[in-house]
Design the sequence.
């Protein structure tokens, strides 16, 4: 239902609850603002947006006054202008707003207002000169002489990121005699350097330290991309000048992060400039790695591979990066399957652990569902450290009254927000969860209807769990039995519960399946309930999606399915793709040592650095090809090194831990002679007699991946110019899928209880 | 006598007849949120305007820009003029800034504080011009000030309500509870059972629904309790000791505020339990005992000793207290006796008949004082409600409340009335008891007469008159009269202490001092049965007078007290619709145990809003702060 009001003499419509400001914005009428910060729920203090409303003796703030039927509003009268100008004049006089040398020049709310409202600060105004000194911060410059005390940073810290590092300073002036005013001073012990305060500061008071003097706003290219730091996949704006990153900011209202970044995403991008960057192809000659041309290196790689596969294609094994783009991964597995002729392609970790239980190996929910969840159960590493932006949504939910239960490996920052915070031993996840399941079953707290109608394997599971008393669970996990019972009862009481698992580098087996068992007992699949794993690596989900798995082609299509193989044979213009599942990476060490695998192609991983046993086995390999952005233990053992482009140096896509395919864009030229990963695989394939048509990341996705994998069929580069789309997305009109297995309609039919410990 | 006033007019040139004080207070001039009142022309209006502007600047919270920067500039201009450095443009500039602060600020500090400044410039412009022309420092006068709000003025303890509500909104829980305790030492208790006159005056109430002022106090207290991090303020240490009669709210409050200033006190309590009527008169389902005990423990922690089961007048007398070295005595003995109904048989000592206060007290000590199926409770106040609801919980299945007027005239809290009905209590109105029928010394029935309402009596309520020949009989197992309580301070105070006809202690209402300089009194034993919050306020007021007495040998009203009186007389009844475009909101209601469950135990009925809900509720506050200053005679 729409109502109408008179805005500057024009009848405009609005929906109930809309403010005058929102109505004006929708009608294209400009009302200036300064403190207005919708994401932080903050407004109403700067009074810049005041308007005249017929029937009100005073001016009213348009940001917090609701539109009403028949209301008559004037947004730009002389009276309004005088009030605005007086506010701006006083602001200009209340600090040292030296625009010429300010980093915010051209990107400043106060400067814009001073210009638009033709402010003229009077010389008779008392100019203040007492400002607090900021402590030395690694990433942030704080200049309180430019602070306008608008409160936005306080809201960003308290209500958006929920770190509460900046105490709300406002209150009677007399309370502030010592600090000289209401300055928003952060507590360095609480600040986690997320930089959300910098993001929201409308003036030059809070700025990025690394960007100091790096570029004026009008000199930069601003490129939207996806963060490479973890599995959340936050959206970033890279500000680049002359091929160098000046700074990174968030993208307002973007999914999944809603304009939030963490310290890693905002400030830690220097890795692409690291001194260990591989910038030239190298070939081992006479035992030493020497610079080579791309032509020589690629020729050599192709000829050596061809020689080895003449005896057996399965003598080649590959390990694919979980940080590379989907298009890179796709081309790597295509090289292995179509050109080399083996399924010996795998990745480390990543997301397929729920497949056996539920039918799809991916998180069941969306980050966007967390903030409105009623109950959240987090297990594993502390999300606030590993995936800080996802943790902000959890903290938002707690702030609005959700119950949070944390079972972490230690008492991390998220535990501080939990109703119950238990500490479990690393590797004991399954044992701990079995204890919860045992309480749910023995106390009759589980969803009987859901279990009998939507699941299978329950009787075996019940028999298994009957031996898993809370006492046994307590012994393994280190959590006392009362806490185990308390947690079980709490998650049974407030449903649905959304479960998040954050694996550590080394985590126990069976955690994901155990959590699936637990959620099946609770019967809570759908919006606001499910099982989710947040991956450490940016494209761990995508690596699996793209078929860096010994038994799955892209889109979780089995290599053993004849019809599927035929489809890929046709598409890749080959015959005889192998129907035999390849050797998983876990078997490669033995196979290298035993001699059945002779060549190892490593892309963006460092298995030799991770494991001495692997390093020893690798020493016996006939051929080691290493494709990476930087030198590693593995690359030092390589016969051929192929320098690959890093994040920000090539186009592509990442799939985050909520199945969202988002664009990764090139913001600068690759370092040295580095080349996009997909290009390198394509060049080698070309030298092995294959002519791949796709000449760009976009071609690869639009013409191959989305054509071949029904899960991604509706996703094209054009559709994900802005926000990414969550698979499954079967066709071009499909909006993507926020929550999987709604109401227990599992992909695999019925959910399967899998006893594990 | 008022010689000049702009009070109550809509600005200096506006309409409406100006108002002045109704009573003769020792105030030479007053500046406040609605104008300026002068009763002594020699007051320096220019200097007083400076003081007012300084006060407005000090009270600005810094959030909205016009008030933050505008009040500062107003104060700067006035400082300049009063230092002899003013220029003629300053007057116009002051007017312009004041107008800007008034029309653009967020809360009432900015809305109202320019008002008297503009009035002063308009009406006394020549004096400002003169001060600037003379270019000499203006002598600084002395003033008293008060920051209030409709809710604050409505509260006997004058709690800074918008202050703690704002701190809750900011999640500064520790500061919120500190603000409450500045003037009200039992936030957990009062946050549960206060009569909340503040909410009646809440300006939000005229727009949608009043803020849950009482409940927010409880949330703050519960948050502190849950955190386990209650801290005590620093306090000096002194030698003088004060004796206090009664560990009810008045006694505890007096001991607390004495304690904060380092004065030790001993409280002599007749019961084995702290809290007085709050503990043994208010049932646990409204106010759990551990809450009062916890708050009494805090009073002990600041330097009070409570001696239980001591009957003053029997176990110790007031002269003996003086002999033991107590320098002053505060009498807060409450109103523990039941009033008579004037009903035949009430003195006969029948089993099954028990006055309400005794009934509640015995329940409070774990007894089951009455039993049976059907009970009649006579009365319409909160004690009567406590009796019927307690009876329900004792197992009476047929619980009836008899009241001689109609429900409309009942003095009980409307929520109590609704809660009683939810619990299955029957209301019989326009009925008065005539005679108790008994058999074998045991109550069997009550003979009643029907009433009709006549003309309004002294209380303003229509007087009930018995209807002729309308007597009827109600069979019952128990009868509980709950029609009022009385005092008997003459039982234990020395003979030279003035006592009123109704056996309450006679004290000066400003200083709480009795006719004897070292004896003070407060609470129900002075006022007759009144509210818990009034008792808390009386205790604090008395503590201040006692400290004055101990330091100077006498106690007299302070300047702030006169200003407080003036402010009360100037606060308009009701409120005009001056926020016509405020966003409509809804009050957050705490969860309640459902009636089916709650009648089976004395467990607390009202739950607590979550901190998140409390913050949203706090966000509804309009901060109707107003500032007043006065120059005294």
Sequence:
């Amino acid at each position: 239902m729409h109502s109408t009001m008179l805005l500057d003499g024009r009848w405009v419509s609005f929906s109930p609850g809309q403010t005058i400001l929102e109505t004006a914005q929708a009608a294209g009428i400009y009302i200036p603002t300064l403190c207005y910060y919708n994401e932080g729920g903050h407004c109403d203090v700067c009074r810049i947006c005041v308007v005249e409303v017929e029937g009100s003796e005073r001016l009213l703030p348009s940001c917090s006054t609701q539109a009403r039927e028949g209301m008559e509003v004037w947004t730009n009268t002389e009276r309004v202008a005088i009030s605005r100008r007086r506010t701006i004049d006083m602001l200009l006089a209340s600090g040292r707003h030296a625009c010429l040398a300010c980093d915010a020049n051209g990107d400043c709310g106060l400067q814009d207002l001073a210009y638009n409202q033709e402010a003229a600060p009077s010389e008779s105004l008392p100019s203040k000169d007492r400002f607090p000194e900021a402590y030395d911060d690694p990433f942030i410059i704080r200049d309180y002489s430019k602070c306008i005390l608008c409160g936005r940073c306080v809201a960003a810290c308290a209500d958006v990121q929920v770190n509460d590092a900046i105490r709300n300073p406002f209150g009677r002036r007399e309370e502030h005699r010592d600090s000289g005013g209401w300055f928003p001073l952060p507590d360095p012990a609480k600040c986690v350097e997320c930089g959300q305060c910098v993001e929201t500061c409308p003036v030059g008071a809070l700025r990025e330290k690394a960007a100091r003097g790096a570029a004026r706003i009008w000199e930069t290219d601003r490129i939207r991309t996806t963060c490479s730091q973890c599995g959340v996949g936050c959206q970033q704006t890279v500000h680049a000048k002359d091929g160098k990153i000046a700074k990174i900011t968030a993208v307002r209202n973007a999914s999944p992060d809603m304009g939030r970044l963490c310290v890693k995403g905002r400030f830690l991008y220097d890795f692409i400039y690291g001194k260990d960057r591989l910038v030239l192809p190298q070939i081992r000659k006479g035992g030493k790695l020497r610079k080579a041309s791309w032509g020589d290196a690629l020729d050599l790689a192709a000829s050596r591979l061809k020689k080895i596969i003449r005896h057996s294609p399965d003598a080649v094994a590959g390990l694919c990066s979980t940080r590379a783009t989907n298009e890179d991964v796709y081309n790597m597995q295509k090289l292995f399957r179509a050109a080399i002729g083996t399924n010996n392609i795998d990745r480390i970790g990543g997301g397929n652990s729920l497949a056996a239980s539920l039918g799809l190996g991916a998180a069941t929910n969306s980050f966007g569902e967390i903030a409105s969840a009623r109950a959240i159960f987090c297990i594993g590493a502390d999300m606030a450290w590993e995936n800080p932006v996802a943790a902000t949504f959890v903290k938002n939910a707690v702030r609005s009254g959700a119950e949070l239960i944390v079972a972490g490996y230690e008492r991390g920052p998220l535990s501080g927000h939990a109703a119950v915070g238990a500490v479990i031993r690393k590797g004991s996840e399954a044992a701990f969860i079995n204890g919860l399941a045992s309480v749910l079953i023995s106390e009759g707290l589980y969803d009987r209807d859901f279990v009998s109608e939507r699941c299978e394997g329950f009787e075996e599971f019940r028999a298994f769990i009957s031996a898993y008393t809370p006492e046994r669970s307590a012994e393994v996990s280190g959590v006392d039995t009362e806490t185990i019972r308390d947690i079980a009862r709490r998650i049974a009481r407030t449903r649905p519960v959304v479960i998040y698992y954050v694996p550590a580098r080394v985590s126990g087996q069976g955690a994901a399946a155990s959590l699936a068992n637990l959620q099946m007992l609770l019967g809570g699949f759908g919006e606001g309930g499910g099982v989710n794993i947040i991956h450490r690596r940016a494209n761990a989900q995508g690596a699996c999606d793209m078929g860096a798995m010994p038994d799955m082609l892209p889109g979780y299509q089995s290599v053993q399915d004849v019809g599927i193989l035929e489809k890929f044979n046709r598409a890749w213009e080959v015959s005889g793709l192998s129907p035999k599942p390849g050797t998983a990476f876990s078997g490669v060490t033995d196979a290298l040592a035993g001699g059945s695998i002779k060549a190892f192609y490593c892309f963006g991983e460092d298995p030799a650095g991770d494991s001495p046993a692997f390093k020893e086995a690798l020493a016996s390999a006939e051929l080691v090809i290493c494709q990476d952005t930087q030198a590693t233990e593995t690359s030092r053992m390589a016969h051929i090194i192929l320098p690959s482009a890093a994040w920000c140096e090539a186009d592509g896509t990442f799939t985050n831990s909520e199945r969202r395919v988002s664009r990764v864009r090139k913001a600068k030229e690759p370092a040295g002679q580095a080349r996009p990963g997909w290009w390198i695989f394509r060049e080698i394939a070309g030298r092995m007699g294959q002519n791949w048509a796709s000449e760009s990341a976009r071609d690869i996705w639009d013409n191959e991946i989305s054509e071949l994998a029904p899960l991604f069929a509706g996703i094209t580069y054009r559709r994900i110019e802005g926000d990414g789309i969550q698979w499954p997305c079967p066709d071009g009109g499909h909006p993507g899928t926020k929550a999987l297995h709604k109401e227990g309609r599992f992909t695999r039919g019925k959910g399967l209880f899998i006893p594990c410990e | 006598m008022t010689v000049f006033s702009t009070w109550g007019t809509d600005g200096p040139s506006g309409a409406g007849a100006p108002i002045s004080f109704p009573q003769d207070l020792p105030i030479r001039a007053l500046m406040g949120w609605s104008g300026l009142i002068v009763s002594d022309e020699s007051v320096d209006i220019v200097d007083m305007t400076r003081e007012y502007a300084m006060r407005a600047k000090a009270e600005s919270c810094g959030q909205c820009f016009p008030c933050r920067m505008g009040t500062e500039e107003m104060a700067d201009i006035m400082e300049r003029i009063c230092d002899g450095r003013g220029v003629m443009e300053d007057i116009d500039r002051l007017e312009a800034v004041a107008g800007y602060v008034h029309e653009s600020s967020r809360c009432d500090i900015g809305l109202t504080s320019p008002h008297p400044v503009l009035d002063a410039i308009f009406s006394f412009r020549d004096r400002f011009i003169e001060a600037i022309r003379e270019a000499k420092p203006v002598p600084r006068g002395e003033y008293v000030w008060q920051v209030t709000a409709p809710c604050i003025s409505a509260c006997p303890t004058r709690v800074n309500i918008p202050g703690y509500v704002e701190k809750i909104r900011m999640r500064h829980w520790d500061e919120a509870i500190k603000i409450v305790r500045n003037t009200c030492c039992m936030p957990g208790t009062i946050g549960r059972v206060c009569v909340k006159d503040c909410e009646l005056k809440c300006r939000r109430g005229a727009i949608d629904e009043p803020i849950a002022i009482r409940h927010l106090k409880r949330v703050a207290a519960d948050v502190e309790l849950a955190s386990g991090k209650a801290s005590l303020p620093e306090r000096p240490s002194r030698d003088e000791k004060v004796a206090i009669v009664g560990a009810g709210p008045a006694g505890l409050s007096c001991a607390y505020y004495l304690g904060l200033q380092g004065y030790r006190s001993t409280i002599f309590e007749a019961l084995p339990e702290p809290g007085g009527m709050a503990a043994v008169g208010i049932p646990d389902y409204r106010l759990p005992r551990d809450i009062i005990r916890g708050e009494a423990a805090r009073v002990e922690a600041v330097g009070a000793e409570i001696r239980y089961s001591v009957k003053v007048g029997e176990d110790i007398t007031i002269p003996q207290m003086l002999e033991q070295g107590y320098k002053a005595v505060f009498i807060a003995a409450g109103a523990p006796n039941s009033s008579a109904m004037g009903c035949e048989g009430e003195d006969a000592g029948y089993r099954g008949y028990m006055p309400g206060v005794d009934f509640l007290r015995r329940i409070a000590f774990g007894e089951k004082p009455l039993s049976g199926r059907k009970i009649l409770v006579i009365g319409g106040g909160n004690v009567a409600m406590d009796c019927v609801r307690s009876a329900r919980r004792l197992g009476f299945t047929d619980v009836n409340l008899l009241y001689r007027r109609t429900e409309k005239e009942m003095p009980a809290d409307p929520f109590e009335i609704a809660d009683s009905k939810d619990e299955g209590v029957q209301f019989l109105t326009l009925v008065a008891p005539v005679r108790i029928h008994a058999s074998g010394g045991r109550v069997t029935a009550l003979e009643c007469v029907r009433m009709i309402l006549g003309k309004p009596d002294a209380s303003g309520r229509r007087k009930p008159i018995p209807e002729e020949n309308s007597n009827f009989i109600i069979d019952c197992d128990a009868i509980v009269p709950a029609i009022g309580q009385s005092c008997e301070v003459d039982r234990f105070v020395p003979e030279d202490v003035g006592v009123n006809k109704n056996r309450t202690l006679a004290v000066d209402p400003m200083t709480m001092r009795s006719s004897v300089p070292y004896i003070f009194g407060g609470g129900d034993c002075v006022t007759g049965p009144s509210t818990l919050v009034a008792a808390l306020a009386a205790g604090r007021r008395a503590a201040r007078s006692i400290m004055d007495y101990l330091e100077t040998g006498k106690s007299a009203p302070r300047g702030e007290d006169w200003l407080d009186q003036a402010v009360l007389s100037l606060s308009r009844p009701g409120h005009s619709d001056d926020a016509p475009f405020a966003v409509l909101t809804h009050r957050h209601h705490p969860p309640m145990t459902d009636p089916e469950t709650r009648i089976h135990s004395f467990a607390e009925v009202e739950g607590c809003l979550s901190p998140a809900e409390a913050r949203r509720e706090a966000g509804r506050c309009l901060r109707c702060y107003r500032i007043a200053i006065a120059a005294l005679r």
Remarks:
- DSSP finds 25 helices and 20 strands in chain B.
